[in-house]
Amino acid sequence: xxxxxxxTQPNALAGSPxxxxxxxxxxEPMPRGAVDPQFALARDVLLEADRVGxxxxxxxxxxxxxxIAAWIMASAIGAQTRRIRNMVAVHPGLLHPVxxxxxxxxxxxxxxxxxxxxxxxxxxxxxFRAFGGQLLPDGxxxxxxxxxxxxxxxxxxxxxxxxxFDGRFYKVDDxxxxxxxxxxxxxxxxxxxxxxxxxxxxxxxxxxxxxxxPKTVADVAEVEAALRAKMSDVTARAARHGRKVRFAFNPFxxxxxxxxxxxxxxxxDLLRYEPGADTRLMRxxxxxxxxAGGIGPARDVRDQMRxxxxxxxxxxxxxxxxxxxxxxxxxxxxxxxxxxx
Length: 341
Description:
Elements: E1 2-6, H1 17-24, H2 37-52, E2 56-59, H3 70-78, E3 85-90, H4 97-110, E4 115-119, H5 125-130, H6 142-159, E5 162-166, E6 171-176, E7 188-191, H7 196-205, E8 208-210, H8 220-240, E9 246-249, E10 254-255, H9 259-272, H10 279-286, E11 295-296, H11 298-310, E12 313-318, H12 324-339
Helix pairs in contact: 1-2, 2-12, 4-6, 6-7, 7-8, 11-12
């Protein structure tokens, strides 16, 4: 069983004074000698996560958000870690796969053999337009064809000293690629999708799938049933390609004496540094992730995470309020007991 967490950036997490300060002052000059608070917090939390036994960090990317760019953050922090892997989110259509292959190989040699890529097919039209990309909208099945070609080009460049590719979306003409990843096994590819074309892309090309479930589920029993059905579907699709896909899941975690008290504490912390936030909207957005059984007494949360492990999920990418104390508690209450079986 592996365990991961999100980089502490405004786009990925909330509930922190450092993230709020970074967001609110993103367009202001910084005092001489100061470091952006989101970087300082991310560095401290993620180095602690490395120390206490987390396995992987997801460096999310929101190009029009106040976040420090994912590749920069991953490089700056990855160079300081010792064992944890660094997964960077990448949007096909914004960067060319040859550029991403070079960035990934570079990072993989800075933190040797410890980088991965999260392919995000994208939804934000304004962001794609601002950065000169081409968005293939949700519902267009060719967006997954493009993602599949993107992955093929990455792996080809990592594998071959000279590489050509003639696809519908990408053309690579005898590129002499100058830098290989640090290890013979190339960086793993993670991704997420819901519909049939996306699941077929995952089955044919991805190493890991972030399993999802409908927002309409009523409780954790329905979450489990939905996950089992989707995992069975992708397993069958992958088998038809002669492949196996591994499963990851990202529940929201908060502890308390009861589920209600844990929920109240979580919302209190999430909203504390969000002046004027629409509480109903926040609860609407966080409601589905909070149905996954990660809210409540530590023993109950731990038991639920064991059930996910036993049904075939191999990575839990935990969402929680980003503090060093919470990072340590996740290790004490979830990582160490589940590894001890």
